[in-house]
């Protein structure tokens, strides 16, 4: 196995002491410095009990750790599929739109419950969108211009995977107003999300057509993989909420980014502290 440890900061003496302790516990054959922020222990033994122990220690030290077979490379994958809100970008767009109505706290509470898996996604989206009824559609552009930012490491990650010839899919329970703009801005290959209904320049409080929920996200990844002529095992899928779990489960590599506990527990990789480009250190 390879054990990769990485932090947002440069690893200091305290961090490296922890690395050496893990190297000893796992009987690692070699220690390789990947970057000032990342190190890999090669030819390591990482049984489940030890993995749980060192994951807890590393989480307390704000270090991300990943144990995986030693033969995985970026070239093993052909597609990266990403959730948008709180994954590729830092915000939940619907919460920021609601803020224009003075309803952010109310909408955010529903969003959080859905992301934790406590509320069915279709119901949560229908309730949240209904609260936006009557809002001037210009609020969408204002959110995009003033509040939408890429997540840490997103651009570096996209640059690397696109340079490697991989395709990209942005699949979101959010809205086409934002995914369409992200597709153009980031040169993404595929996008799929919900359509907000607008009449006379105002939001009606409804979504046009079917809702992109967990099942639809999974179907979208499967459909794009089929179009590409690849297995879903050749896809890396990134998400943060419970509605991402179904598409993450069919992936060759699932990545939980700043995710809810229920998602971290089920993902292959949990990036709790580093940026999205942290996935690259796992596949060098």
From TrEMBL:
NCBIfam families: HAD-SF-IB (TIGR01488), serB (TIGR00338)
Listed GO biological process terms: L-serine biosynthetic process
Species for this entry: Undibacterium piscinae
Pathway membership: Amino-acid biosynthesis; L-serine biosynthesis; L-serine from 3-phospho-D-glycerate: step 3/3
A single GO molecular function term of this UniProt record: magnesium ion binding
Enzyme nomenclature, EC number: 3.1.3.3
Enzyme class name: hydrolase
Keyword Translocase attributed: no
GO cellular component terms, semicolon-separated: cytoplasm
Keywords of this entry: Amino-acid biosynthesis, Hydrolase, Magnesium, Metal-binding, Serine biosynthesis
InterPro entries named in the record: HAD-like_SerB, HAD-like_sf, HAD_sf, PSP
UniProt cofactor(s): Mg(2+)
UniProt similarity note: Belongs to the HAD-like hydrolase superfamily. SerB family.
Name of a matching Pfam family: Hydrolase
Reactions catalysed according to its record: O-phospho-D-serine + H2O = D-serine + phosphate; O-phospho-L-serine + H2O = L-serine + phosphate
Xref: CDD domains: HAD_PSP (cd07500)
Active site location: 83 (nucleophile), 85 (proton donor)
Gene coding for it: serB
Entries under PANTHER family matching the protein: PHOSPHOSERINE PHOSPHATASE
UniProt protein name: Phosphoserine phosphatase
């Amino acid at each position: 196995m390879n054990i990769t440890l990485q932090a947002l900061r440069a690893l200091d003496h305290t961090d490296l002491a922890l690395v050496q302790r893990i190297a000893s516990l796992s009987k690692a054959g070699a220690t390789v410095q990947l970057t000032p922020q990342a190190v890999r222990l090669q030819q390591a033994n990482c049984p489940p009990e030890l993995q749980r122990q060192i994951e807890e220690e590393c989480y307390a030290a704000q270090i991300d750790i990943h144990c995986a077979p030693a033969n995985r490379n970026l070239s093993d994958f052909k597609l990266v599929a990403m959730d948008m809100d709180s994954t590729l970008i830092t915000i939940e767009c619907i919460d920021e739109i609601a803020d224009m109505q003075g309803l952010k706290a109310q909408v955010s509470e529903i969003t959080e419950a859905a992301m934790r898996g406590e509320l069915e996604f279709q119901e949560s989206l229908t309730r949240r969108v209904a609260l936006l009824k009557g809002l001037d559609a210009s609020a969408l552009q204002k959110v995009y211009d003033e509040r939408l930012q890429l997540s840490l490491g997103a651009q570096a990650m996209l640059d690397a995977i696109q340079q490697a010839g991989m395709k990209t899919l942005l699949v979101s329970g959010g809205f086409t107003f934002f995914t369409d703009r992200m597709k153009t801005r980031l040169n993404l290959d595929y996008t799929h999300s919900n359509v907000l209904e607008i009449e006379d320049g105002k939001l009606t409080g409804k979504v046009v057509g079917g809702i992109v929920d967990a099942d639809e996200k999974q179907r979208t990844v499967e459909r794009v993989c089929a179009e590409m002529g690849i297995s879903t095992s050749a896809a890396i899928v990134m998400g943060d909420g419970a509605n991402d779990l179904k598409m993450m489960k069919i992936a060759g590599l699932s990545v939980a980014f700043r995710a809810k506990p229920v998602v971290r527990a089920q993902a292959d990789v949990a990036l709790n502290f580093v940026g999205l480009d942290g996935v690259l250190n796992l596949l060098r």
